[in-house]
Amino acid sequence: MTPRDAGVARRSARGAPQKGSGAKGGRPLLRLVDPTVPERAPLTREERRESSRATRELRGQRDANRLTILVALLSCFGLVVVLSASSIASITESGSPWALFEKEAMWTVVGACVFFVASRMELAQLRRASGPILVLSGLLLVAVFAPKLGSGAVGGSSRWIGIGPLVIQPSEVAKLAFCLFA
């Protein structure tokens, strides 16, 4: 060991700043090295890109799971609110305190099935389907003016399409179609 190396060793042992140490506060970084483990070569640009992509996919899946749980909780809360707020209206309309709740629960189950199918689709499939869905929603928006289909006229405007017990509001379908198309 040369006298210069001994001086560097003494300074680094005292914690004095060392040129090129890269540590905060000028303290040298200490790294434990296991001599039995061979040193890894640095990652190539493609390997770093793949690692970054995999990390983003894991984060995306975690965020999707959180969003799914949040939507399920909000839907359950909404069902409870509908049940507690509509029992008297349900009794006066149909004689059962459960009528509006059952209807809302049915639509929640339909929405959950659509959500399950849509979550299994690839994004490219949704993008390809956005145009036809937009055209279909436009046809439904025009169909409210048909004499036998349009129902629920309030103040001279018809906003609903009713076929038997099934009544839908085409503007809700149009909102989804515009979101997919955009």
Topology:
Layout: H1 3-14, H2 45-94, H3 99-120, H4 123-143, E1 150-151, E2 160-163, E3 166-168, H5 170-181
Antiparallel strand pairs: 1-2, 2-3
Helix pairs in contact: 2-3, 4-5
What are the main properties of this structure?
182 residues, mainly alpha, 3-stranded antiparallel β-sheet, 5 helices, 5% strand
Overview of the molecule:
With 182 residues, the chain is mainly α. Helices cover 64% and strands 5% of the residues. It is built from five helices and three strands, in the order ααααβββα. It has helices at 3-14, 45-94, 99-120, 123-143, 170-181, and strands at 150-151, 160-163, 166-168. Strands 1-2-3 form a three-stranded antiparallel beta sheet, with no helix packed on it. Helix 2 packs antiparallel against helix 3. The mean pLDDT is 81.
Write a short abstract of this structure.
The chain has 5 helices and 3 strands.
